[in-house]
From TrEMBL, chain A:
It is an enzyme of class 4 (lyase). Pathway: Amino-acid biosynthesis; L-leucine biosynthesis; L-leucine from 3-methyl-2-oxobutanoate: step 2/4. GO terms for molecular function: 3-isopropylmalate dehydratase activity. It catalyses: (2R,3S)-3-isopropylmalate = (2S)-2-isopropylmalate. Belongs to the LeuD family. LeuD type 1 subfamily. Residues 1-116 form the Aconitase A/isopropylmalate dehydratase small subunit swivel domain. The lineage of its organism: Bacteria, Bacillati, Actinomycetota, Actinomycetes, Pseudonocardiales. SUPFAM superfamilies: LeuD/IlvD-like (SSF52016). Keywords: Amino-acid biosynthesis, Branched-chain amino acid biosynthesis, Leucine biosynthesis, Lyase. This is 3-isopropylmalate dehydratase small subunit. Pfam families: Aconitase_C. Catalyzes the isomerization between 2-isopropylmalate and 3-isopropylmalate, via the formation of 2-isopropylmaleate. The keyword Transcription regulation does not apply.
Automatic annotation (TrEMBL), chain B:
GO terms for molecular function: 3-isopropylmalate dehydratase activity; 4 iron, 4 sulfur cluster binding; metal ion binding. PROSITE patterns: ACONITASE_1 (PS00450), ACONITASE_2 (PS01244). It is an enzyme of class 4 (lyase). This is 3-isopropylmalate dehydratase large subunit. Residues 425-451 are annotated as: Disordered. Its cofactor is [4Fe-4S] cluster. Binds 1 [4Fe-4S] cluster per subunit. It comes from Pseudonocardia halophobica. Its EC number is 4.2.1.33.
Length: 196, 474
């Protein structure tokens, strides 16, 4: 996983709350067996609509998505994160993220920055008034900055450290293989196995 | 201080407590007792293992089944959709390569993961169960801690049989009625839809829910599974119900349940899995089950539901701006008018099935309503058993005959129209009454409109052609 410290890119205002993962990427796209190439499925239902924000220049080149509250609810599909990243997004900003989405983001290296709703409104206004405005997300300082506006964001400390270091999950866990071995030796005999 | 059920199960699976490492609190490392795998969320995980040269640590704690996009018609022919076929074939190759047991299409044990685990007796009290599917919460009905995970977590569990997790908060959902029963025509599906409407689709966020109270105590295992299944629709990571005699009776004698002396040992351990009297939940919610009537959704998230006797709500009356906008969008997508009685809504399709309501009791309930009746003209009804076992059982009981005599289609097992990854989809604008769990835009097919209902409401709706409950039939 690549290290993340700061990122600057065009901000995309998405004035919708409760953007669920079926909206981010509909189930038909989940049939693929590869890890990449999901950008065409991103918001695919909405992209049929010409007025949708990602169909407009310069937003189509955006990399920082500013969305309404309860982003990423619904199914656990990690493809939602991949689709956002394959499209080019590195950061999603929202006042509230669904738990599973937040977890999935951390694992794939997408920054889910939690910003208070009034600040999200300010960002929306700014990005709508001046399309193409660049937004800088500083993970070290936990700030989002666009033009004269600088607002703080929240992110879990541990997730932040992982993103800053670019650390992969499995490698981290396997540093504790001894503890796993020991735990396995102590499991009760009545626990089920799938093979018996 | 006492501990809640969820905390007990958590503590029993702690491989390593997360340390304070200077960069914040590390998550705890939890051991996973059972990992269920299906064709949609696993290919990239196996791919990851292959890339890193890692094996599956515990194939004996892993089980795969094909469910999400298997056809439910012509099941002996090759899958027509090339992408579905690729996913299924990829799963078969991966299971073979990594030594994971797989129940493929047409196998007698095939079915929806969340139906298969419990019916095999693999889902047991006090276990940790994960699957790359958010409705893994179903297994919590046994007092297991069960939750959906993403594909990288699938890879993580395959490689290490553990998951790094942050502790959850706990919420008690107390469901009570005067006599501990639900009113006639009211099912556990109505209970959970009412809970979600009350606390909202984000109300459970960050929590493990524990359903308790005299109504829950009297529910069958299958009815409990329906409730736990939809915990995720309230935003919760998991939902649990303390194991009791009903749980033990359900498990006893199942293929993978403990046998002989181990059974006694297990039951003794399982009896400890109750929230202590002095334990404190982080939040509590009370549901008065005496006030519950059949519940249906009118909008595009599972929290947008109302008793069937009500009318479509008027967005203008909603104070919260986000919710108002969401309601407006929902009504326009659903093609509904504010003030319209819910009972006047005409449906094109009725779907009975899914991991929420595709078990034998659900099919029995629907069949009882349909027995000797005909479904309305112009309505199609799909009945899709949750697993091959459910299918065989239903056929043994003659339920298939009841469905087909009424004019419904009797299908083979799988997720089917719950998410429309196989050919069972709604056409744009088509409206369904569905016993599944999600009414999101396009969930059952692009442009499709979904009303979530219980199996009883589904069957009554099929007969009348408009959203109905069994009492409308007499
Ligand atoms: S039936 Fe529906 S909710 Fe259940 S596992 Fe299948 S797709 Fe998911």
């Amino acid at each position: 996983m690549e290290k993340f410290s700061t990122h600057t890119g065009i901000g995309v205002p998405l004035r919708r709350s409760n953007v669920d993962t079926d909206q981010i990427i509909p189930a038909v796209y989940l049939k693929r067996v590869t890890r990449t190439g999901f950008e065409d499925g991103l918001f695919s239902a909405w992209r049929n609509d010409e007025s949708f924000i990602l169909n407009q220049e310069p937003f189509s080149r955006g990399s920082v998505l500013v969305a309404g509250p309860d982003f990423g609810t619904g199914s656990s599909r990690e493809h939602a994160v991949w689709a956002l990243m394959d499209y080019g997004f590195r950061v999603v900003i929202s006042a509230r993220f669904a738990d599973i989405f937040r977890g999935n983001s951390a694992k794939a290296g997408l920054v889910a920055a939690q910003v208070e709703q009034p600040d999200v409104e300010l960002l929306w206004k700014l990005l709508e008034n001046e399309p193409g405005t660049e937004v800088t997300v500083d993970l070290q300082e936990k700030t989002v900055q666009a033009k004269d506006l600088t607002v703080p964001f929240e992110i879990d400390d541990y997730i932040r450290w992982r993103l800053l270091e670019g650390l992969d999950d499995i490698g981290l866990t396997l540093r504790h293989e001894d503890a796993i071995d020991a735990f396995e030796r102590s499991r009760p005999a009545h626990k089920p196995v799938t093979t018996a | 201080m006492g501990r809640t059920l969820a905390e007990k199960v958590w503590d029993q699976h702690l491989v390593r407590k997360g340390a304070e490492n200077g960069a914040g609190q590390e998550p705890d490392l939890l051991y996973i007792d059972l990992h269920l795998v299906h064709e949609v969320t696993s290919p990239q995980a196996f791919d990851g293992l292959r890339l890193a040269g890692r094996p599956v640590r515990r194939p004996d704690l892993t089980l795969a089944t094909e469910d999400h996009n298997v056809p439910t018609l012509d099941v002996l022919a090759p899958i027509a959709d090339p992408v579905s076929r690729t996913q299924v074939e990829t799963l078969r190759r991966n299971c073979e390569e990594f030594g994971v047991r797989l129940y493929p299409m047409n196998h007698a044990e095939q079915g929806i993961v969340h139906v298969v685990g419990p019916q095999l007796g693999l889902t047991q009290p006090g276990t940790t169960v994960v699957c790359g599917d958010s409705h893994t919460s179903t297994h919590g009905a046994f007092g297991a801690m069960a939750f959906g995970i993403g594909t990288s977590e699938v890879e993580h569990v395959l490689a290490t049989q553990t998951l790094p997790l942050k502790p959850f908060k706990t919420m008690a959902i107390n469901v009570h009625s005067a006599d501990g029963r639900l009113r006639p025509g009211v099912t556990s599906k109505d209970v959970v839809l009412a809970i979600i409407a009350q606390i909202g689709t984000g109300g459970g966020q960050g929590y493990v829910l524990e359903y308790r109270g005299n109504v829950i105590d009297n529910l069958s295992m299958e009815a409990r599974m329906t409730i736990c299944n939809m915990s995720i629709e309230a935003g919760a990571r998991a939902g649990m119900i303390a194991p009791d005699e009903t749980t033990f009776a359900y498990l006893k004698g199942r293929d993978h349940a403990p046998k002989g002396a181990q059974w006694d040992e297990a039951v003794e351990a399982w009896r400890e899995l109750r929230t202590d009297a002095d334990a404190v939940f982080d939040a509590e919610v009370d549901i008065d089950a005496d006030a519950l009537t059949p519940f249906v959704t009118w909008g595009t998230n599972p929290g947008q539901g109302l008793p069937l006797g009500e009318t479509v709500p008027d967005p203008a009356a909603i104070v919260d701006e986000n919710e108002r906008v969401a309601a407006e969008k929902a009504l326009s997508y659903m093609g509904l008018e504010a003030g319209q009685p819910l009972r006047s809504i005409k449906v094109d399709t009725v779907f009975v099935g899914s991991c929420t309501n595709g078990r034998i009791e659900d099919l029995r309930a629907a069949a009882e309503i349909l027995d000797g009746k005909q479904i309305a003209d112009g309505v199609r009804m799909l009945v899709v058993p949750g697993s091959m076992r459910v299918r065989f059982q239903a056929e043994e009981e003659g339920l298939d005959k009841v469905f087909t005599a009424a004019g419904a289609e009797w299908r083979s097992a799988g997720c089917s129209m719950c998410l429309g990854m196989n050919p069972d989809q709604l056409a744009p604008g088509e409206r369904s009454a569905s016993t599944s769990n999600r009414n999101f835009e396009g969930r059952q097919g692009k442009g499709g409109r979904t009303h979530l209902v219980s199996p009883l409401v589904a069957a009554a709706t099929a007969v009348r052609g408009t959203l109905s409950s069994p009492e409308d039939l007499v």
